[in-house]
């Protein structure tokens, strides 16, 4: 996938798009080498962005930690997904639960389409979900110590909030080594 010149991209921070609390230009975009933008293959749906300068953390701009590659977020873990959705100015948040991969791969759900690099979250009854425009957004959870971890990245789903069609996210632990390799300090 080609995103054009990274210098034409900017990253906005805060809870509203206009005006953002902070903005940085993008120095580089690194897309996973095995990613193919096809409707039938959602594997390797991950990229990292190198910003032109560091971001200062505030009450509206917070850090999220990367979990270790071996960490397992169990079935029914409470998570939050945030996104802008289709053309809204205020960041929105939804509470969802992790759904075990074996359940998500059942015939009536995604029929075996969930691979090890993916994690499902939402509700089998539908009603609450990420949607178009949220792609690339974070799926996070808080541990007992109050530390927030990035569980997943909004990737795909069958429409939005439909019965037996929970959201599917890129599983961050699966790509932890790749992320570390691409973000290593020189």
Automatic annotation (TrEMBL):
Keywords: Disulfide bond, Hydrolase, Protease, Serine protease. Residues 1-184 form the Peptidase S1 domain. GO terms for molecular function: serine-type endopeptidase activity. Transmembrane segments: none annotated. It comes from the Eukaryota. GO terms for biological process: proteolysis. Pfam families: Trypsin. PANTHER family: ACROSIN-RELATED, SUPPRESSOR OF TUMORIGENICITY 14 PROTEIN HOMOLOG-RELATED. This is Peptidase S1 domain-containing protein.
